[in-house]
Amino acid sequence: MKFRPFGRTGWQVSEVGFGAWQLGGQWGTQDDAESVRVLHYAFEQGINFVDTAELYGAGHSETVIGRALKEWRGQKIYVATKAQPIRWPDPGDDAPQMRGRFPAWYLRENVEASLKRLGQERIDLFQLHSWMPDGLYALDWLETLNALRLEGKIDKIGVSLRDYRPGEGVDLARFGLVESQQVVFNLFEQRPAERLFPAGAATGTAFIARVPLDSGSLTGTWTKDSYGSWQPGSQPHQMFRGTRFAETLARVEALKSLCALYFPTLAEAAIRYVLSRPEVSTLIPGMRSKAEVDMNIRYSDSQPFPVALAGALPAHAWVRNFYQ
Which of 14, 228, 253, 260 is 20 to 30 A from residue 149's alpha carbon, by CA? Predict the structure, then answer.
């Protein structure tokens, strides 16, 4: 496992982290004891960064991680969690208001609840599970989080950008008000590399790349029958409903044909593409089994990304939002 600086924090984190949304149970039935075993296996392979949220199974993902941490006796594990806003902004609103989304009493309740579920005295990275650009002016959220930091309840502060809106984090990165930003970045969503990453590099902002495998599509293992095998009501069943699955699969097949000239699997191309950006401190694919851990960490070896392939990928960029 290779490690990278987490922005200006002084942390050294595994460049492949553990995305723990699936451990909350929203991606299909998941056995908690197996989740703990998978977490421990990931830690044994060198993964030392875990990302979760109150939203993931109404705190269940945090509870499972807390159980794993209680039993772990190895290296330091950095835990990142998130508080969702008290009211989510409308996905179509290009200028939602930040003030009132994260009131002081609400943030404090969230921090205390997450600490209890995680079984920790301090949260390493506490993130807002949404960001609105006018938060640069309406700073009540930052005042509260800085107070919690002084009280020793949280260590570092981050935000998770709204899905498929990387431009909303550019000014925040330029000001460097938070230590990290979490953003969708993968073979389809390539825009963070244009403005967001350069802005953050200037201020030492860490970037967490989420859904590097596009919630499973970029593993390259889907077939035309995959959708029918998913549990009704699960996150992927909802996300790729209607015509979305067929359109995604067609675009994945085109990428597979291109990437096959350079890599044996699309998953390898997808992971290596995200790792090719030095501004990315860690990527956080979801993992539900030891086999998935092995697949995701296999490419942490500093191998350069093919220049010719990088030049061909912009033609496959695809801006869409299947997370609403």
Answer: 14
